[in-house]
Design a protein that fits this description.
The structure holds three protein chains of three kinds. Chain A is about 35% helix and about 25% strand. By secondary structure, chain A is α/β, with parallel strands linked by helices. Chain C has one domain: MetI-like fold (Orthogonal Bundle), CATH 1.10.3720.10. Chain C has ten helices and no strands. Chain C starts with a helix and ends with a helix. Classes of the chains: A alpha/beta, B alpha/beta, C mainly alpha. At the B-C interface, helix 1, helix 2, strand 2 and helix 9 of B face helix 2, helix 6, helix 7, helix 9 and helix 10 of C. The structure holds adenosine-5'-triphosphate (ATP) and magnesium ion. The site of magnesium ion has 4 residues of chain A, from helix 2.
Chain lengths: ~250, ~280, ~240
Amino acid sequence: MLKPPELTGNGASLATSLFPLVISDLTFGSRERTLIDNLTMTLDGRGITAVMGANGAGKSLLLRLLHGLLTPTSGTINWNGQQLDDDIRARQAMVFQRPTMLRRSAADNLAFALQGLPRSKRKHRVEELITEAKLEHAALTPARLLSGGEQQRLAIARARASEPELLFLDEPAASLDPIATHAVEDFVRDIHHDGIKVILVTHDVGQAKRLADDVLFLHRGRVIEQAPAEEFFKRPTSAAARAYLDGQLAI
Amino acid sequence: MKRLLTPLAALALVASAALPAQAEDPFIIVQSTTSTQNSGLLNYILPIFKKKSGIDVRVVAVGTGQAIKNAANGDGDVLLVHAKPAEEKFVADGQGVKRFDVMYNDFVIVGPKSDPAKVAGGKNAAAAFKAIADAKAPFASRGDDSGTHKAEKRHWKAAGVDIDKASGDWYRSTGSGMGATLNTAAGMNAYALTDRATWIAFKNKGELEIVVEGDPKLFNQYGVILVNPEKHKHVKVKEGQQFIDWLLSAEGQNAIRSFKVDGQQLFFPNAETAEKKKAG
Amino acid sequence: MFESGSILSLAVGLVVSGDPELWSIIALSLRVSLTAVALACLIGLPLGAFLAVVKFPGRGGLVALLNAFMGLPPVVVGLFVYLALSRSGPLGVLGLLYTPTAMIIAQTILVTPLIAALARQSMADLHGEYDEFFRSLGLSTRQTIGALIWDGRYSLSTAALAGFGRAIAEVGAVIIVGGNIEHVTRVMTTAIALETSKGDLALAMALGLILIAIALLVNVAVLSLNRTAKRLAYA
Ligand SMILES: Nc1ncnc2c1ncn2[C@@H]1O[C@H](COP(=O)(O)OP(=O)(O)OP(=O)(O)O)[C@@H](O)[C@H]1O
Ligand SMILES: [Mg+2]
């Protein structure tokens, strides 16, 4: 198993860390449906956290709420005692379940996320990121023509470009072939080694086992389990998690 | 966005480059009527004036009513139109300096060869108008407050016909220029009143021909007026006056006289030239 | 009267003869309409994108107004500009009436709503796709609008072409503010109006054919420029 390194990345240079993340009574929904239901939990800044749960459990919604793309109906989200603001969001980055590909080349998609950087440095950084994402062959290809896996790698590299302290990954390896999945996992590990906290949504138990330090299990908008990965996979306490894992095994 | 605009801007540049370099000659704006332009008179005499004076005459050709309004707004240096009462009012209102007779042409009544109102060959405009109204034969009117329209209304009055009642029935008010009205008349085989100059130069005559001409009441006097610089400071008095002087001079009058279409003289100069005055 | 074949040969003859007067009229038409469209893009594209991106009270009304203004009658625009530029109007001192500049102003006013409204539609679609990502990056409104316009440039060029089509084809506005002055403000459409009023319908039609051919050429030019640009950018 991978040992989580001490958190010494970009976060260390900043005055205060984003963590602990304290969520209390978080609710989100419409009049007809409660989608995130009174969620309360705490998360620290170490390691890779896997968020698991059945389709429609609310995993993507939770990530959007944490990243400030949706406003909670009620409840609070606290980043080391602070409410989310533009400044905190700038220290986070997100790779969406269906990544948005700008109508530009792969390289220009990366450059777009580097607008804060002076022009002279931007080109060099784009080259670095292209190499990291193993997209040298496709740097000038329109991003929307890349294969699904290449798009995922590009999206991850692009999210990384802004040098976040926290990276949300929403099923980054869904629909990828085993080799591509492997590449994405290596990439995630690299990122984590650089001291970036990763919150990863995945349906792939194997992947969660390989990558995660701890697991959040969502069921119908609630966190019904939060445990170190090893423990969760050995002894899931909730019936829902057991059923989910059994289902996975049965396939 | 910039890159999207580049081709457009480039095209615009090419287009402007393709324009012949516009010499910044001195110029005046003359508010005039469609008849002087459509007949080709201005195209004939203006180059002669330009050669002599170096002044470019930019003509805005609209209906007389519109031309007078534009001039009253100060949008022109010289007014060259044909509606004497309105021109005199223009001067009386202080909008123009002084009015001079320049030339005349005449109006003719045109109508279909079939001649349903049986007016062909007549020499009396009022009688012809009365016959057209009695026969309820279609008639196309300018209806645009132009000099021609004003003249037409005078003839209806003289004939004792209330055309407002007939409007939309046999009387069709086109609300447009002479050419458009003639196109309409040709299209529906209607009678119409037109100046001879426009008629001769007009190419889409269809079944129409001249049915009434030669009534002295059909004479159509043109006047020229300098827009009053006291009302409109920017009026180019020197150049404008130069143009008017030339029009009224023997040379200008001769130019008007020598303009012919199909061998036919269309405008008859009748200015009180300095030479004439001396002689008289 | 006349046959369509003879009109076509008249049109071809006019072009082939290289009549300098015809060419200067064509050049002026292009200069006026292309400049107007460029200006209208400069105003209309950001305006359309702004309306697609920023929510504010009254936005719906403004969009409805913009859509209604797409069908603004050229004559009304012409009159409006005439009243403004007339010597007795508020901008009379500039002496712009009866100049190509006045025609450019009128056509810019005429096509800006069209370009803005079309831009707003395609920008709204694109914004729907990009919104979350841009918010995740924390882009400012300006950056968002800039990126949307850049990424939507090919569909926006269609809006620009629609604007060009409306500008090059209109006669009502330019004849009022330009005055159809020979060698100065006479463009294709006012020349056609003039020939029609002279009853020379065949010549008017021939000029009309040439106008259509020009519009077609500009469309083909922009579309193929687009295609080359697309190819070059990603070659
Ligand atoms: N903006 C929204 N408004 C209303 N309902 C929404 C919205 N976003 C998501 N939902 C609903 O909330 C539920 C949870 O959606 P979410 O995308 O979080 O699921 P998920 O756990 O990510 O599932 P999957 O594994 O399929 O990605 C779904 O039933 C979805 O239909
Ligand atoms: Mg999801």
